[in-house]
Amino acid sequence: MTAKLLKHHGGFLHMHYMSCQPKDRVLLLSLRNPIERFISWFNYEHVSNPPIIRYINGAQRRRPCPFKVFRWQGKGCFKTPNEFAENCTSPGPSMQPLFTRQDWISANLTTINHYVNSSSCQQLAWMVARGHAECAAHNFFHFGFYSRQVDMLVKKRPDRRVLGMRTEFLAEDWNEIERYFGGGTQSGSALFKTILNASTKKNSTDRPLSDLGYENLCRALCPEIQVYKRLLHQVENLNASQVRDSIVQVMSYCPQETEAIRKCPNH
Question: At what angle do helices 34-45 and 240-253 cross, to 10 degrees?
Fold first, then answer.
């Protein structure tokens, strides 16, 4: 079985790299519950993870942020996502943030070292969760970043269609997008059979964070969650019920969230 969708691959946008071409008329977004996405980011990017260790003597050595955020060999702040989340609290309105996302973008390595070294673990956790500090890429290149890129690409070519595929509903969304390209209606179910089998074995009550951890992370990721809601509404292949299913899943972690896009508190 060959999926039609795989034959329509053109350019792509991934962090710093963009190869989208003017002829590309469909944008396919990868969407994931921001809370689960962040926990996955922490586990994968931890400096003790084998794929990351390979780069320790290379480019990663020039990036001090991961080595302070992730505790490893007796150094650093946080060993687990729960330790990170429980300490991820706002510096508060009385304390000026140490740096902004734009500060980080424009800074040289010496300045970045100063930002990181002068930050407490709590301050750095907040800056990392908010996407101000590029600690290992995907926290920095968040939905806010990709949403701006999508808006730019659509502005350049208004007839572009924007589709989305949700990590939590891979087979369902793949099947619908496959139909859009004229393919079979069940190719996603076969393609993601292994993933689906694994997900059915997972205990639905598994929650890697404590209540305090979720409360803190929900507050820190509030702006990201609102952009996620916007993207869910923006993509053309999801109906109102599917959008609601994804937002309700976020609300199961963050009960203060609403189905509508809302204004986040500053701190």
Answer: 60
d(CA 62, CA 64): 6
SS (H, E, C) the chain: CCCHHHHHCCCCEECCEECCCCCCCEEEEEECCHHHHHHHHHHHHCCCCHHHHCCCCCHHHHCHHHHHHECECCECCECCHHHHHHCCCCCCCCCCCCCCHHHHHHCCHHHHHHHHHCCCHHHHHHHHHCCCCCCCCCCCCCHHHHHHHHHHHHHHCCCCEEEEEEHHHHHHHHHHHHHHCCCCCCHHHHHCHHHHHHHHHCCCCCCCCCHHHHHHHHHHCHHHHHHHHHHHHHCCCCCHHHHHHHHHHHHHHCCCCCCCCCCCCCC
Q: 131: which 2 tokens?
A: 């996407």
Residues 6+ apart with CB under 8 A from 99: 107, 115, 127, 132, 133
Rounded CA gap, 228 and 226, in Å?
5
Beta strands 13-14 and 17-18: pairing type?
A: antiparallel
pLDDT in tens, 187-227: 666 666 655 444 444 444 467 899 999 999 999 999 999 99
191 within 8 A of 174, measured Cβ to Cβ: yes
Distance of CA 91 to the CA centre of its chain: 23
Decide if 38 contacts 85 (C-beta within 8 A).
no
Select from 103, 104, 115 the least CA-distant residue to 137: 104
What predicted TM-score, i.e. pTM, was given to this entire model?
0.85
> Which region among 61-70, 96-105, 106-115 has the lowest average model confidence (pLDDT)?
61-70
